[in-house]
Amino acid sequence: MEIGFGILGQTALLLHGNMDVKPVRGRPGQVLAVLLANPGRLVPVDTVVDWVWADHENPPQDALGTLHQAGARLRQAFQADGVDADLTIGKPGCRLDVDRGRIDYHRFRAMMARARQFHEQGQHDRAHVEALAAVRLRRDEPLAGLRTAAADGWRLRWARNEWVPANAFVAAQQLLLGQTELAVARLEELDLAHPMELSLAKLRIRALLAAGRALEATEYFRRLRREFQEHGDLYAAGELLAVYNEVFVPGAASFPAPAQPAPAAEEAEPRLPAVWHLPPDVDGVVGREAVLAELDAFTADSAGVPRADVVVLTGGPGVGKTTVALRWAHRAAKRYPHGVVLVDLRGDGQAADASAADVVELLLALLDVKVDEIVSPVARAARLARLLRRRRLLVVLDNVARTDQVEPLLRVLAECTVVVVTRQRLSALLAARPSPVVTVAPLSDDAARALLERRIGLRARQDPDGVAALVRLCQGNALALTLVAVRAAARTGMRLVTLAEALRDADMLLDVGNDGDWPGRSLRSAFTVSYQALPPAEQRTFALLGLHPGAEVAPDALAAADGRPLSQVRQSLAVLVAAHLIEQPGDLDRYRVPNLLQLYAESLARQLADNAAARRRLLEFSLLTAYEAHRTVFPAKHRPDLPRTGGDVTPARFATPAAARQWVLRERTTLTAAVRLAAEAGLPEIAFTLPSLTADVFDSHGHFGDIIAGFTVAAASAAAVGNVYAEASSLNDLGQVLLLMGQDAEAEPYLREALRLVDAHGIGIGRVTVMLNMARRHLHAGRITEAVKMSRETLEEARALDEPERCAAALHRLADALLEQGGHQREALGLYREALALRERIDYRPGRAQTHIALADLLTRMSRYEEAAGQCARAARLVNESQHLPTAMKLNTVQARLCHAEGDDRAALRHAHRAVELADRSGHATGRGRALDTLAGILLDRGNIEDARELWERAARLFRDRERVGQAQRIEARLKSLEAAVIPEARDGERDTVAMPSPRLSSWAAERA
């Protein structure tokens, strides 16, 4: 299998000759990118840090240790895919030895060198093919994962010295081969990404002239020369003038004219007058090169001869379909000697629709036929069809609303090129007559920025922050950008940032353009045209989308809000997709409303007669389905009682725990937003119940921010209605997640307030729960005696309440505290086993996994390795079921210690690195500290004392920063013990991350014993 490396895009392994791209993400991918940009060279550690860590990131205190970890993961990836590469990481620096020909950047350079050789030999076709293959190696922005000044400098140099010249070379070869339109399209696209690049500008003037677009060439020259003069670049302005004067000398031609197609047979007949019914061309169309090229490709053959075919040009409201069609029609007009006609079928609803008969009558009149003399519509159509057989005509049918408007026309226009411009998918037309569909998408950010700068002028170029804010607001919608540009141009005294801030008001943004003129043009009016064309059921469905708090919506949630059967709602969603009012972004049964249309939907939702009831049903669906998901994933775990609901909502059901977990994760942002929406809508019971049903799954994947956001709202909502139990529970859970994140100081006030509430109101189960977390807080802070005392008190109270899981948790916590106190291994072992028996009795699997891991760790310390391995195996089965990242992290940490104790350091290192990776993924800072502590011990015993020291220093800082005093002090004691340690001779730190096995250091071995 051919395996290469890619940095011309996201850093990746390129498998099967670039057919399969396997990204290398995270820090390892960033480090790999730096080394691939400098293959075979020793890159100093400081240089790698400058390339990888951006200004807003804190560079690692132990850069070499971090790079060792990245190197280990890269070697694992290389080994898994059979990559032949030698990676060395040491104090002098980092080096990757690999065949340069397998790196896409160097392949690009080699291919361009061959292309230039072909050009010098006059083989322009081979030069074009080779150069085109070279530029296609670029998958995305080079070094896409690196956002540092060093990487930016590399990208800038590559763009100026290699990428732009390569594309200019391709365009020049296309001109030499007579492919003028392809050359122009390429140069227009390059101009957006590299504006005011002199070499491209000079070539574009020549290309436009070669394509027969002299007027456009002149307009482009004048605009760009003026911009050069405004920027003070008189040299570039002079160069541009010289090229313009050169190519516009009569008879001058820098490139051969494109081959002309053979004339069609009917052109031998006497010429008939051309028919032109086309509005004036539009200026300032940007970012549509790909769409224009698609229209060219679908409407002409390889020789440039027009096809008698139908193309559908479609897109959402306001994206600029008519503008694109008009621009293309003017550009393609030279291919249609008998004329171009654009007819508005008025499908926008602002006037009566134009019928097929109306269009036939108009075309006959344009052909100077006395329509009044032909009474029968059938005869008129037949006469038009006969006339058009003698003409190569382009007909653009704009604003088509339905298939029946155009289907009768297409038989009459069978000899013409027809472009149907519509907001609809026109499924019936495409089913009856399969035709290519060209979709006009929202503009890219670069194109949107270019449009604003062109419309607003120098003021926009001087205020890039304001332009960026307007671009974010408009979301690529061409109408929004145009209206905002008009508003900005009219208010010259207002900063663009200030205008953007004002337009953050949804109603103001939707109504910008409505300033008393008639007819008013605004986003609201454009969206209303599409909305009013919908049947009533689909109008309601679209309005209900404005109630949904998430970025994506599933049909069953919308059906709950609507009150209609799911099958009917699915059909309505299909209609909305066909109308380009919503999107179905993937193959999942989910839908997304573009941002601007979401604002419009929200304005419609406020007008619904059953607004409050629909919102209640939507939120109850989230609540009830979250309850079902929790019951499926955690069948033995306690859940809060559900509040009373309306009884008119059916939740989703789940066949497996995996499906339930996937639903919670997929709906994560929606569920978090639903908590806030419930509080705002006056539904506090939903607001303080829902977070308790989602927190366990969020916790298992490290989504602590969502847990905190949910419980913060929950506590306030419960307090507002005087529900002390829910308030105390939410405060306790807030404290618990903050403890998990290592933010113990922030957690303590929440826990103390929760304890005050449960004590004041005699909530026994609440007191036990909070005391468990308070005991953990004491333990973390190094207050071991208090932790042991509170754990014993908690155990007694839990037994009195006959709460088996709370008893198990108290037993487990007491064992933890006794081990920290020292000298209580046998007692702790008995406590863990008692806790495990309780958890097995109630089948509480998450708790069982945690206790198996604790037992494995203790048994490893006691040198009972076979028993420890059995506990690890049982924990691994449970972790594989739950996919709980923090638990998997703890398991790998303990497995690393066990493997190291048994002498299998290769496996120990693998588990330790895996633990660090899981800690990073789950945002578990103290878990990362434990994993680093373990990794340092392994490295030390292998003689890698300096790296061990660095890892322990990092771990100690992590624990100190989070007030884990006991753990920090223990590691700091180990660091002191290194002062007198004897360094083995086996390690060669210059060549590898981990040294060969060496004798254990006596000081460390004694401490571990």
Can you offer a commentary on this structure?
With 1009 residues, the protein is mostly helical. It contains 46 helices and 13 strands. The strands form four sheets. The protein has a six-stranded parallel sheet, with helices on both faces. A hairpin with a 2-residue loop joins strand 4 (86-90) and strand 5 (93-97). Helix 13 (356-366) crosses helix 14 (377-388) and helix 40 (865-882) runs antiparallel to helix 41. The two termini are 49 Å apart.
Can I get a quick summary?
The chain is mainly α and 1009 residues long. The protein has 46 helices and 13 strands.
Strand content: 5-15%
Tally of contiguous helical segments: 46
**Which structural category fits the helices and strands?**
mainly alpha
Query: How does the major sheet shape up?
Result: 6 strands, parallel
Strand order of the largest sheet: 6-8-9-10-7-11
Shape: globular
Radius of gyration: 35 Å
User: How many strands?
Assistant: 13
Helix content: 55-70%
Please report the distance between the alpha carbons of the first and last residues: 49 Å
Output mean pLDDT.
86
Any low-confidence stretches, pLDDT <50, length ≥5?
250-271, 982-1009
